[in-house]
Write a structure and sequence with these properties.
The complex is a heterodimer. By secondary structure, chain A is mainly alpha-helical. Helix content of chain A is 49%, strand content 12%. Chain A has a single domain, classed as Orthogonal Bundle (Cytochrome-c3 Hydrogenase, chain B), CATH 1.10.645. Classes of the chains: A mainly alpha, B alpha/beta.
Chain lengths: 371, 256
């Protein structure tokens, strides 16, 4: 079964670079990975089961706890899926739509900043961590000013938003996006042309576009492989169609390209936010909720709806029996879970130290993998 | 506050009037791939702009391959639903839903098969690699079996877990798994209780003197403490769950 030189070691679940409680069973030949087998489930909390036992609005805080560094997009996917089920997608006021887009893009920035910070520190670059957390702190402050929470935001409601923007929030956002472009330049000056960074990322974990589709990989890893596919464009929701942004794609499908894609995505998110500010100033304050029944009881049926979360396609598949205020079944299609599945294929033949880079580059959050 | 009768009836989905199964099957979206497998399609539904085709269970791999050859290269999601408590449902207990995406058409379609406890569903891992973990999860959570799957084992729960959590008859509070954490310390039936220190009661360094009579009595007695706390429940100080567990009669066993 084993070659004489092969041995089996556990990577994680307490290893700091597994970003949580991922365990990878490695079969290694010296430093080289012969086989990698992810073992997951350490953070399983039965979120889908809980969804079946709660009224739809009560589920929203539970969505926060799946991808806990990108709560706003989790909220967005869920409320939009329920709205689609109820057939009220078109009734969401424009101000609420813009607020949703702004919070999602801020969330994308903060999630990518956390990814960059930890990815760089895993590979050995300590400094970007401090720089990224400097800006991430400001994003979290903006979240806190809006909804009172920094991570588990619970910031959207079925039919609209819970509160209007507090006074001065847009000015603070403007101040933040005014300096964010320079901040991204600063991160890039540390890494993009860094010889060590390139030696650790170029040509590591190459995934071809065909393989990526076959594995169901979405989000930055798919775009890093050169596929120009983003749900914000492919299946637009809210007011994304009228916003101008570009979808970055990579050329080689390696870890370095995925890094570049995410860096450009942060800049594009900043651009979207910049466009949203005048648009939202033109909408009447206070119009943030559609006029819908207080009791959410969708008709019998099932929908699948997905949004582009910072990690990839985050989908909700809801089956409603039309009789109760609970979902009969709510399946979450988590991007981290699906992207992680390709890890063995990516890791094969690489060094153990590259595995650290690979776990970083697919950007998993174990709360979402295990739900 | 709790107006149980909604002021407006649930709005109908935005899609136009529901089409019949025959009309759905003629939809250019799906007409191509199912042309050769018309007899495998047992029904079709159109809700909120989403197409669902019901497929004969034994033909699902052929139908999926036909879809993939037609450009549906991306299996978005694969999941199971337990219909045993669905109002008015008759027929097989489980359904497996396959959500497919075509890049060229930029559209999704859903395939569904019916199955029951005993009958396995043919695995589509040979069509899309991504089905592997989805099917494992469906097996783990629902107990739906997939034939010809390369390694159909539990993925989120641990090996040997007795039950399928997303089945409708699985209690939401969980079950006694029989897991024994420190069996010499904790009684049979589970792990540490709320308020417990994790040590044998007689090894716990408890304050044996009198508690001052002013103020409130110690909130949660350590599990197995000799003296049952006679005090009236302190008003707002403690989490009620912790106090209740500490006073539960099961704790007295530990002392013996």
């Amino acid at each position: 079964m084993f070659d004489v030189h092969e041995m089996e070691v556990n990577f994680g679940p307490q290893h700091p670079s597994t970003h949580g409680v991922l365990r990878v069973l490695l079969k290694i030949d010296g430093e080289r990975i012969v086989e990698a087998k992810p073992v997951i489930g350490y953070l399983h909390r039965g979120t889908e089961k809980l969804f079946e036992h709660m009224a739809y609005p009560q589920c929203i805080p539970h969505t926060d706890r799946m991808d806990y560094v990108a709560a706003a997009t989790n909220n967005l996917g869920f409320v939009e899926a329920v709205e689609k089920l109820m057939g009220i997608t078109g009734q969401i006021p424009r101000r609420a739509q813009l607020m949703r887009v702004m919070l999602s893009e801020l969330q994308r920035i903060s999630s990518h900043l956390l990814w960059l910070a930890t990815h760089a520190i895993d590979i050995g670059a300590m400094t970007p961590f401090f720089y990224c957390f400097r800006e991430r702190e400001e994003v979290l402050d903006l979240f806190e000013k809006y909804c009172g929470a920094r991570l588990t935001l619970n910031c959207m409601r079925i039919g609209g938003m819970p509160d209007d923007l507090p006074p001065g929030w847009l000015d603070e956002l403007e101040a933040f996006i005014g300096k964010f472009e320079a901040a991204v330049d600063e991160y890039e000056s540390l890494l993009t042309n860094n010889r060590i960074w390139k030696r650790r990322t170029v040509g590591i974990g190459v995934i071809s576009p065909e393989e990526a589709w076959d594995w169901g990989i979405t989000g930055p890893p798919l775009r890093g492989s050169g596929v120009e596919w983003d749900l914000r464009r492919a299946q637009p929701y809210e007011c994304y169609p009228e916003l101008d942004f570009e979808i970055p794609i990579g050329r080689n499908g390696d870890t370095y390209d995925r890094y570049l894609v995410r860096m450009i995505e942060m800049r594009q998110s900043r651009r979207i936010l910049e466009q949203c500010i005048p648009l939202i100033k033109a909408t009447p304050a206070g119009e943030i909720k559609a006029r819908i029944s207080r009791v959410i009881r969708p008709p019998e049926g099932e929908v699948y709806h997905s949004v582009e979360s910072p990690k990839g396609e985050l989908g909700y598949h809801i089956v409603s029996d039309g009789k109760t205020q609970n979902a009969y079944r709510c399946r979450v299609r988590p991007p981290s879970f699906v992207n992680l599945q390709a890890l063995p294929a990516m890791a094969k033949g690489h060094l153990v130290s590259d595995l650290v880079a690979l776990i970083g580059t697919i950007d998993i959050v174990l709360g979402e993998v295990d739900r | 506050m709790s107006d149980t009768t909604p002021t407006t009836p649930p709005a109908a989905p935005a899609a136009p009037a529901a089409r019949t199964a025959e009309e759905i099957l003629r939809d250019p979206l799906v007409a191509g791939p199912i042309e050769r497998y018309r007899d495998a399609v047992t029904g079709a539904r159109d809700f909120a702009g989403e197409l669902t085709l019901f497929i004969d269970r034994d033909r699902i791999v052929d139908v999926c391959r036909s879809f993939k050859d037609d450009g549906w290269i991306y299996l978005v999601d694969l999941t199971g639903v337990d219909y045993s408590k669905f109002p008015g449902h008759t027929g097989p207990r489980f359904s497996v839903a396959y959500t497919l995406y075509s890049l060229r058409r930029n559209a999704r379609v859903r395939l569904r098969v019916w199955t029951d406890d005993a009958t396995p569903v043919p695995s589509v891992t040979s069509v899309w690699k991504t089905a592997n973990w989805h099917e494992r999860e469906t097996f783990d959570m629902m107990g739906i079996r997939f034939s010809d799957h390369p390694n159909l084992e539990r993925i989120l729960m641990w090996e040997g877990f007795n039950g399928y959590p997303l089945r409708k008859d699985f209690p939401v509070r969980g079950i006694d798994t029989g897991a024994r954490i420190y069996p010499e310390v904790f009684p049979a039936g589970g792990g540490p209780k709320a308020g417990s220190t994790g040590k044998d009661a007689k090894d716990v360094n408890l304050y044996k003197g009198e508690w001052p009579t002013y103020g409130v009595s110690p909130v949660a007695a350590i599990g197995g403490a000799k003296k049952a706390a006679p005090a009236p429940a302190p008003a707002l100080t403690a989490a009620p769950a912790a106090a209740a567990t500490a006073a539960a009669p099961a704790d007295e066993d530990e002392d013996e």
